[in-house]
Structure formats: C-alpha cells, structure tokens
C-alpha cells in the first residue's frame, strides 16, 4: 500500500509532502529515505516496492523546494532566505520520529538511507541524532576540501547579496551539476552522468520536478553543509557503534570516481567507527537505484539490513 501524507515544515509555512509504502505481510523493519538534489521522493517507488516485498515499511518526504512540497515552480530549489539546511534537517528528523515511534511499537529496527545531497544531510544528521537509527546507508556521497566548500559558500553568498536569495545562477550550476554533465560529454542526454540506463535518464530529463537550478541561497546552504562535513563538525557526537554502509558507482563524478567516497570512509574508520562497510559498483554512475544493475544493488542493501536486524 502506498499513501501520501503531509506535515508542517520547520520553515513555519510550507506544507511538506511525504509517501509511506506499507508491505502487505509481516513488518520486519522500517526504512526512511532521504532523496537527493533536484529530484523527488516518488522516484524511489521501484526500490520502495522491492523493500516492501522484503517486509520493510518505507517512508520519505520531498525536501523544501522539491517535488510536491514546492508550492509552485518558482519554489523549486529554494529553502528560504536563511537557515534552509537547518529546516531540511529538522524535517528529516520529524519524519524520523514518526518512523522510529512505529518501529518501536512494532519491535523492529529502524534504518535511514540518504542519496547524494541526502547522504550529506544524513552525515550531518547523525552528528545530532545519531542515536535514533539502528544503521545508516550513505549512497552517492561526496567529500570536498574545506577551502573549496568555503569558496563556494562565499561565491553563493555574494551572488545572493547582489542578485537576491531566489536568483538562479548559471555559474553556480556550472560549478556543480553542470560540471558532472560535462564529464560525460553528452549534450543530447544531460542526465547520462546519473545512470547508464537511458530510459531512466530520459525520464529524469523530461520530468518538471527534476534538473531545475538551485537558488543562490540554497547553494550557499549546500556549500556550508559541505564545509561542516569537511571540517568534521561535531563528529565526536556520532555514536561509534552506529553501523554504516557506503555505496557508490565507480563512475560517479559526485564521489570523485571513488576518491571522495574513500576519504569519507577513511575519516569514519580513523575516528573509531566500529562497523563501516564500503562497496563500489563497476561502471555504475551516480544513481545506483536507477542503474542497469540496480537489482544487484537492491539485493546488497537487503543483505546488509538483514545482518543488522537485531534491535
């Protein structure tokens, strides 16, 4: 069963949209999904249906400025003039509390999976609420040097001040998603950096809820988040016994073609994290759940969850 739900966002005025996928049979676990940049939660429907068949309740929502949470096209890529990333984190936590409460009621474990920007948010989330999930999955994550993130933040802040918080900068886009598109050199198929599956790439390109440009204020918030992660802000608060699974395509430009993902892994292991697993997928690009070999990725996630089912 698939059901839409709504809640009041932490920004104080937006109506956030979410989806709950319920299995038909026995409930064995709860999985929260945190989607990435310039997409929407219903893109995870195929994976959620698979997890339902494994006995998992799946829940997720559209971030501010995304999907059905955005009140209009003008709201796409806009979190607010300031504190946008905090609003995103608080909305994630709101859904977590709902999911965790039900998991405890059903006496089953609760996990969170974050993809791309969602994985960055999840890495920050566990420095605040790391005792909430029983395990986390970081998919398509990234790591940028602190100086680079600071430079991006200053640039976005300057554009914000001159052009306005809701201005959509070609330069900022070119430095982020635009640079990923260029690495694959396919002007006819700009979504090719996401997946080798042409049908999935085409569906992304043609959907009005995908591929839009972030506003200057949103880029400012995103770069600030990247800097916090690069500086390992509050990493001492992450529970060392929290299980972590990291997944990435070997041809994912966001993860630096494995380099950035390995940096994150090395940070976790160096700080004494007790259960960190990392897996790379040959030839896969950024969106593992939409790749040609996604059935393998689905099974690998299921198997890892099975190993961490004790509550």
Keywords:
10 helices, single chain, eight-stranded mixed beta sheet, 16% strand, 41% helix
Description:
It is a single chain. The protein is an alpha/beta fold and 311 residues long. 41% of the residues lie in helices and 16% in strands. It contains 10 helices and 8 strands. Strands 1-2-4-3-5-6-7-8 form an 8-stranded mixed β-sheet, sandwiched between helices. Strand 5 (110-115), helix 3 and strand 6 (135-139) form a beta-alpha-beta unit.
What would a concise description of this structure say?
With 311 residues, the protein is α/β, with parallel strands linked by helices. It has ten helices and eight strands.
Topology:
Layout: E1 2-8, E2 15-21, E3 29-34, H1 45-53, E4 56-61, H2 84-106, E5 110-115, H3 117-129, E6 135-139, H4 146-163, H5 170-175, H6 177-184, H7 198-206, H8 216-230, E7 244-249, H9 259-270, E8 276-281, H10 294-307
Parallel strand pairs: 3-4, 3-5, 5-6, 6-7, 7-8
Antiparallel strand pairs: 1-2, 2-4
Helix pairs in contact: 2-3, 3-8, 4-8
């Amino acid at each position: 069963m698939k059901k839409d739900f709504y809640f009041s966002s932490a920004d104080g005025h937006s109506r956030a949209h979410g989806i709950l996928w319920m299995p038909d049979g026995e409930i064995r676990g709860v999985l929260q999904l945190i989607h990435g940049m310039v997409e929407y939660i219903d893109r995870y429907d195929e994976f959620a249906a698979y997890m339902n068949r494994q006995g998992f309740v799946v829940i997720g929502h559209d971030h501010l400025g995304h999907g059905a949470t955005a009140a209009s096209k003008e709201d796409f890529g806009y979190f607010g003039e300031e504190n946008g990333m905090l609003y995103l984190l608080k909305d994630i936590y709101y859904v977590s509390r709902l999911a965790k409460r039900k998991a405890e009621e059903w006496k089953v474990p609760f996990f969170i999976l974050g993809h791309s920007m969602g994985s960055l948010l999840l890495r920050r989330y566990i420095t605040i609420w790391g005792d909430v999930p029983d395990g986390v999955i970081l998919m398509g994550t990234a790591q940028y040097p602190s100086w680079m993130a600071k430079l991006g933040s200053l640039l976005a802040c300057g554009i914000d001040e001159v052009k306005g918080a809701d201005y959509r900068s070609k330069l900022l886009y070119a430095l982020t998603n635009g640079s990923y598109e260029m690495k694959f050199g396919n002007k006819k198929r700009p979504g090719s950096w996401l997946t080798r599956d042409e049908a999935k790439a085409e569906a992304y390109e043609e959907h009005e809820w995908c591929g839009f440009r972030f506003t200057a204020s949103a880029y400012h918030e995103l770069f600030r988040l990247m800097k916090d992660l690069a500086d390992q802000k509050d990493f001492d608060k992450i529970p060392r016994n929290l299980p972590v699974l990291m997944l990435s395509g070997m041809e994912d430009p966001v993860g630096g073609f494995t380099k950035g993902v390995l940096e994150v892994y090395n940070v976790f292991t160096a700080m004494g994290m007790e259960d960190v697993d990392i897996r790379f997928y040959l030839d896969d690009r950024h969106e593992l759940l939409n790749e040609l070999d996604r059935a393998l990725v689905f099974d690998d996630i299921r198997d890892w969850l099975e190993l961490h089912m004790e509550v």
